[in-house]
Design brief:
The protein is of the alpha/beta class and about 325 residues long. It is built from 13 helices and 9 strands. Helix 4 runs parallel beside helix 5, helix 7 crosses helix 9 and helix 7 packs across helix 11. The structure holds NADP nicotinamide-adenine-dinucleotide phosphate (NAP).
Length: about 325
């Protein structure tokens, strides 16, 4: 068996993502020893029962002692506090990363809290589910998913080597790695993830409050589109509160543009401008096809699928090839 990318890994916060990182790292042989720190007694109890960590503690400093890689997998606004607790025990030359859904604010919090003797390389796996907690983790979560790393603007060799090693780690876990500026990450994710969640939370809340439509009817006829929103709107409230508060500027910018487009749609409906609606819906259908072609169509794990387009009901091989 080849040698591990990092002999010792510490994961601070062992919910869905932390547990998945551990399971994927263990399955691939990317690590040999795993220490976990989690603030939740219930999570610690479950991690102990599941048996995938060598050490389980409430104390981040105890977990990071001797670790070659430290992964912060707590909610975005808890990153600073967790990093401050771990800082005094960090090994010189350790790589410190995170999995937070917002990058600029997290990078600032980590760099401020951590000693200069470690390599801080923020990261974000674009993979997840609406579940939380260690029991929700699974080893295949990152298969063929993107992981975005947002390294600091440094070009010294030790730091670049640390970035390459972290890339090797995620690659071993089945992911594809891309490097990006943290502010650009936050803008891109505001479009692809944060705004869709905000819309889902809003629609599901609005439907629940609608007078004249009973809750029973909402449940019964949910297959007409609403059901897909309810899955997204079931996502963890702490995580998403933190995402919106930490990525305020980008989310408000994208929300402003969305509101303008929504006004245009409502005008087209009001004035019976069918050609405008048809043109818009045709364009968005192409975007969906692009996602399928990129192998990112399913919320389910991507068990080693390749990136060829997948035929869907109504498609012929010819239409798919366009
Ligand atoms: P999760 O399942 O709720 O797990 C987070 C764990 O961290 C909980 O056990 C929590 O305990 C613990 N925790 C909170 N503050 C802590 C602290 N200061 N020190 C130690 N442990 C602490 O969350 P998750 O879904 O795995 O998300 C973790 C991170 O991944 C977030 O930053 C999120 O933005 C990012 N992410 C999530 C997804 C997704 O789909 N879920 C996808 C990509 C990235 P308590 O429950 O007691 O607070």
């Amino acid at each position: 068996m080849s040698s591990p990318v990092y002999p010792k890994m510490a994961v601070i916060g062992c919910g869905l993502i932390g547990a998945s990182v551990i399971l994927a790292a263990r399955a691939s042989g990317a690590v040999t020893h795993v220490a976990v720190a989690d603030a939740s007694p219930a999570a610690r109890e479950r991690v102990t029962a599941l048996g995938f960590a060598d050490l389980v503690t409430a104390d981040p400093a105890e977990a990071v002692k001797d670790a070659d890689l430290v992964v912060f997998a707590v909610p975005v606004m808890a990153m600073g506090e967790a990093a401050r607790a771990a800082a005094p025990a960090l090994k010189t030359g350790a790589t410190v990363t995170d999995v937070g859904s917002v990058k600029a604010a997290v990078a600032e919090a980590l760099i401020e809290a951590l000693p200069k003797s470690c390599f801080v390389i923020p990261g974000h796996p674009i993979a997840g589910t609406e579940q939380s907690g260690p029991d929700a983790g699974f080893a295949e979560l990152f298969q063929n998913r993107w992981v975005i790393l947002t390294p600091q603007a440094r070009d010294d060799e030790p730091y670049l080597d640390a970035v390459q090693r972290l890339r090797d780690f995620w690659t071993a876990l089945g992911a594809q790695v891309e490097l990006m500026d943290d502010k650009h990450h936050d803008l891109v994710l505001a479009v692809t993830s944060h705004l869709p969640h905000l819309i889902a939370y809003t629609i599901v809340g609005a439907a629940a409050d609608l007078e004249g439509v009973t809750r029973g009817e909402v449940m019964k006829y949910s297959a007409g589109g609403f059901r897909d929103f309810t899955r997204i709107a079931a996502s963890d409230p702490t995580m998403w509160r933190d995402v919106f508060l930490s990525n305020k500027d980008a989310v408000l910018e994208i929300l402003g543009r969305f509101t303008e487009d929504l006004q245009a749609m409502s005008r087209a409906i009001r004035w019976g401008e069918g050609d405008k609606l048809y043109e818009h819906f045709s364009r968005t259908r192409e975007i969906r096809r692009g996602i399928i072609a990129a192998g990112q169509e399913s919320p389910e794990p991507n068990f080693g699928r390749d990136h060829r387009p997948v035929l869907e009901a109504g498609d012929t091989p010819d239409t798919k090839a366009q």
